[in-house]
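Human: Cast an eye over this sequence-structure pair and say how the chain folds.
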Amino acid sequence: MLRALDDARRSGRWVGVDAGLVDLVVPFRKSFGAPMRVEVWADEPPSDDGWDHVVDVDLDVRDGLLVFEPSGGFTPTRCEGRVSSGCYRARVSGRGYSAAAQGAEGMDSYRIRLWPRVRTASPVLRGSWPGWASVP
């Protein structure tokens, strides 16, 4: 988990990967109740224009389960639906960052779009929230 967090920060993507774990860093302290939508596509989905931050990463799903775990040892949450086991490319997108960074709770939301992956690829930063420059 710490290596994925280090990758997120060092790379400037704010989404890090290591050993099958994807770490999504948000620019504010509290986001545990934010909605996370998971979509499975047959092919690469259209770009996430209008979202604050977008990163593509590889994600392998085993046993048909996706589990989300907040930092700090909080209780993990399983994705309500099952996702077929396999090798995917994942587009991780977040929005509402500016309002949430200014203290407005409940303004951020997230989406993960999965599609089948043919080959391993490096993470790609597709869109970066400009407020990262002011985050300590």
